[in-house]
């Protein structure tokens, strides 16, 4: 199993998309959706001449919701949520910034500059609700909702994790160049391309899952 397989296999197949009425969208479709760009890169060249390191960190943060037992639960979660994106409030969110750095060296024999080591950092944080004072019925409904919402947010983490490994690959697979300035510019350009691809994946993922609702993140209570 490759290092990034964890991200490709986590979070998605727990939701049966076909059961939810999406005939053309299966777990395998999601894995292909995530894995294809990286797989193509690996097929183009398996050799990684430089030393690399991918550092992953995932934290979870909670906001508390003091629940009124005689009122619908979901509106209470939204009112208490600190998460807003483009004036829309959500009950869960994944922050997943990715950074990278690399070292290069000018070869005294060939006169070319090449990357000798690189590091890619993913520091992710998932923000989720936590209810206080709820009835047993509300707790049961919330637990089902929470599990589905967390599954959706782990999907965002999966995309970020795959992107971190893709950036790592791009950096260590960079060919030697005539100048170090050219190498640095090209390496950063490739990394930013992968980062931009991840933004598109995030938007597509939310569209396909309707921000987790088609993965079960629906609260009727």
Sum this structure up briefly.
This protein has five helices and six strands, in the order H-H-E-H-E-E-E-E-E-H-H. It has 221 residues and is an alpha+beta fold.
Note the topology.
Layout: H1 5-9, H2 27-44, E1 51-66, H3 73-80, E2 83-85, E3 88-90, E4 93-95, E5 98-106, E6 113-132, H4 136-172, H5 180-209
Parallel strand pairs: 1-6
Antiparallel strand pairs: 2-3, 4-6, 5-6
Helix pairs in contact: 2-4, 4-5
Can you walk me through this structure?
- The structure is a single chain.
- The radius of gyration is 21 Å and the shape is elongated.
- It is an alpha+beta fold and 221 residues long.
- The two termini are 41 Å apart.
- It has one domain (5-215).
- The strands form two sheets. Strands 1, 4, 5 and 6 form a four-stranded mixed beta sheet that branches.
- It is built from five helices and six strands; from the N terminus they run H-H-E-H-E-E-E-E-E-H-H.
- Helix content is 44%, strand content 24%.
- Helix 2 packs parallel to helix 4 and helix 4 (136-172) packs antiparallel against helix 5.
């Amino acid at each position: 199993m490759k290092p990034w397989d964890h991200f490709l296999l986590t979070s998605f197949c727990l939701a049966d998309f076909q059961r939810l009425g999406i005939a053309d969208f299966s777990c395998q479709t999601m894995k292909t959706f995530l894995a294809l760009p990286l797989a193509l890169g690996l097929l183009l060249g398996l050799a990684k001449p430089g030393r690399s390191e991918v550092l992953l960190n995932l934290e979870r943060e909670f906001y508390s919701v003091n629940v009124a037992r005689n009122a619908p639960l979901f509106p209470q979660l939204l009112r208490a949520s600190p998460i807003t994106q483009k004036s829309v409030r959500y009950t869960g969110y994944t922050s997943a910034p990715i950074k990278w750095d690399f070292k290069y060296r000018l070869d005294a024999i060939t006169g070319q500059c090449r990357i000798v080591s690189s590091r890619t950092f993913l520091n992710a944080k998932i923000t989720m609700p936590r209810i206080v004072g709820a009835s047993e019925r509300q707790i049961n409904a919330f637990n089902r909702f929470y599990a589905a919402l967390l599954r959706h947010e782990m999907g965002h983490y999966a995309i970020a994790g795959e992107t971190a490994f893709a950036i790592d690959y791009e950096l260590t697979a960079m060919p030697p160049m005539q100048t170090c300035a050219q190498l640095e510019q090209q390496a950063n350009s490739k990394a930013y391309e992968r980062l931009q691809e991840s933004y598109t994946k995030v938007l597509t993922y939310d569209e396909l899952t309707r921000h987790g609702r088609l993965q079960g993140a629906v609260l009727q209570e």
